[in-house]
């Protein structure tokens, strides 16, 4: 079949592409019932066949965790209006792996993750289940985008995020980008009419300065709650944090080759 | 006090450094009782004051997960022979954060993670709790190294890994490397005498091709076990996978700025 396809004319190939709507895998880390993922589906559902495979419970901060020590389950929730919805007992990364192997039985044309309730700019890309799911897809040669809105609230206004999720998904489907492409998209928490457009950025060196709240249980033993204050150490005007502070939708292209090539060169010369 | 130090001569500063042994934070993802972490402590305990803060249970595959929804606990296990040992109920990344804030009350001079039972080369750097702990330290401006031995066994022979853990830790303590330095070190599972030395490498594009084993529970419902076959798609001779196959200890310098700068430039020109 593959050989036969190669012999068709360019025109035929194009019309074939037009006939077959793209398969769009949607996941997140806030769980399958979160308003954010419903808004994402709403934004893109007429661009292709949408299949949702998302965690059955919140999985924020799970980073690139995978489930090794216990089995996973999938539950089919609904199929209607060109959208198929499944929940999964695992992490966001598990969802992507299981979706490809046991739900789609093929690689989707694109993977969209989010829309996350809360920011995933700067160093948060590393802790974020939303972005780890997108990264996992890209490792599997599926172009992907993670979307986040800078509003934790369950009643957040997703209008602007929906608008740009659609614009960016259309651009991704139309562009001939590398199959390992991952974009980290964050949307400021302002009314859609105030958004100034999109900005391609680098990841800021900005992070949470951690502190743990120390409490005592009824038996006099200590326990600690993670908390922290966000601090931006990066004064650059080409960062995602700068763009978001100036009401732009930030887009950071992300990679999963973590090699520090500058340090590699240095060590090759000095660590003899 | 800081001001006073600045006014001392270079010679005095040097002798001061010599007088105060470095504080070495040790953690892992296999848990505080794993042979790997005991071997790491053994390898470096006379190089400084060693403080172990490690998970109280195995945390392999936890990636950069952090604990947000529940509190954490610390347990002091022992202090002797210049080594202080604590267990923590959280993930490897939680261990680093808690160690700095609630055990050391300062940044250690170096963080060592491992020695992991099993490989963390190539794409595994992203899933690995061992490497995420090291990365977390580097984000916190603590130079760090993650060590892994290519042998899952509880009875693995750590002699070669111990030898190179010591050599590399000494080099790190002596070198004036950036405070955000992270090294991913993997050691082949061969007798120490057969190791050919160290090689500075890049991360190979090699990964597990996933497959899930599909089983039925006694109620006829499906459940899935993650499994997979390791495949190397990268034929380069400068990769960690190549070095390990040729009996070298692989050292990949790692970074946490995930920006794909090449794609950033491309999108800036084309996504107008």
Indicate how many domains the architecture of chain A comprises: 1
From the alpha-carbon coordinates, what is the Rg of chain A to the nearest angstrom? 20 Å
Shape of chain A: globular
Number of helices of chain A: 9
The CATH homologous superfamily of chain A corresponds to Survival protein SurE-like phosphatase/nucleotidase
CATH level-3 fold name of chain A: Stationary-phase Survival Protein Sure Homolog, Chain: A
**Beta-strand proportion of chain A:** 25-35%
CATH class descriptor name of chain A:
Alpha Beta
User: Which sheet architecture does the biggest sheet of chain A show?
Assistant: 9 strands, mixed
Structural class of chain A: alpha/beta
Order of strands, main sheet of chain A, comes to 3-4-2-1-5-6-7-11-8
Q: Spans of chain A of 5+ residues with little confidence (pLDDT < 50)?
A: 1-16
Q: How many individual β-strands of chain A?
A: 11
The CATH architecture category of chain A equals 3-Layer(aba) Sandwich
End-to-end separation of chain A: 53 Å
Q: What pair of chains forms the biggest interface?
A: A-B, 70 and 70 residues
How helical, in percent, are the residues of chain A?
Answer: 25-40%
How would you characterize the overall build of this protein?
2 copies of one chain form a homodimer. Chain A is built from 9 helices and 11 strands. The first copy, chain A, is of the alpha/beta class and 272 residues long. Chain A has one domain: Stationary-phase Survival Protein Sure Homolog, Chain: A (3-Layer(aba) Sandwich). In chain A, the strands form 2 sheets. In chain A, strands 3-4-2-1-5-6-7-11-8 form a 9-stranded mixed β-sheet, sandwiched between helices. A two-stranded antiparallel ribbon of chain A has the order 9-10. In chain A, helix 3 crosses helix 7 and helix 4 crosses helix 6. The termini of chain A are far apart.
């Amino acid at each position: 079949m593959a050989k036969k396809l190669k012999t068709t004319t360019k025109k035929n190939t194009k019309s074939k592409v037009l006939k077959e709507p793209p398969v769009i895998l949607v996941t997140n880390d806030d769980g399958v019932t979160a308003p954010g993922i419903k808004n994402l589906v709403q934004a893109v559902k007429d661009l292709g066949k949408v299949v949702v495979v998302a965690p059955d419970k919140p999985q924020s901060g799970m980073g690139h965790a995978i489930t090794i020590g216990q089995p996973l389950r999938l539950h089919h929730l609904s199929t209607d209006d060109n959208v198929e919805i499944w929940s999964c007992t695992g992490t966001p990364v598990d969802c992507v792996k299981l979706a490809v192997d046991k739900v789609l039985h093929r690689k989707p044309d694109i993977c969209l993750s989010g829309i996350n309730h809360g920011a995933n700019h700067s160093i948060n890309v590393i802790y974020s289940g939303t972005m780890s799911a997108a990264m996992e897809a890209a490792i599997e040669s599926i172009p992907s985008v993670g979307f986040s809105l800078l509003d934790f609230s369950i009643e957040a206004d997703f209008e602007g995020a929906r608008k740009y999720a659609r614009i960016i998904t259309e651009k991704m489907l139309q562009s001939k980008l590398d199959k390992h492409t991952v974009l980290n998209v964050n949307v400021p928490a302002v009314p859609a009419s105030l958004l100034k457009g999109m900005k391609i950025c680098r990841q800021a060196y900005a992070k949470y300065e951690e502190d743990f709240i120390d409490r005592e249980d009824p038996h006099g033993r200590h326990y600690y709650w993670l908390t922290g204050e966000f601090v931006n150490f990066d004064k650059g005007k080409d960062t995602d944090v700068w763009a978001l502070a100036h009401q732009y939708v930030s887009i950071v292209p992300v990679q999963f080759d973590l090699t520090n090539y500058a340090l590699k060169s240095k060590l090759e010369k000095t660590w003899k």
